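User: Fold this; tokens only.

Assistant: Input:
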Amino acid sequence: MASCIAKDDRGIADLRDESDRDGVRVVIELKRGEMPDVVLNNLFKHTQLQTTFGVIMLAIVGGRPRVLPMVDLIDYFIEFRLDVVRRRTEFELRKAEARFHISKGCGLRSIISTP
């Protein structure tokens, strides 16, 4: 982490990595008289603490590609997942009914109930 910070950041007195298995923690001690907001803004400007990138949220809706806002994208995704779960459940139900029908046709019930 220390290598990410430019050498011309004169407001930083010490930099410690106190990360452990619970998470990442970096402690930055400032020199006397430095303004924390100025040093923080310089860190954001000269390091990768803050990164922006563009995203094209393209989805196929109704068989056609569309660029959607985030809320609509989430709504369509939830609708898609519900449809997937419904179809999978119906498939498993049909499979279980077919197995039941075969076991019923083999006369397993009469064999089991005889003793």
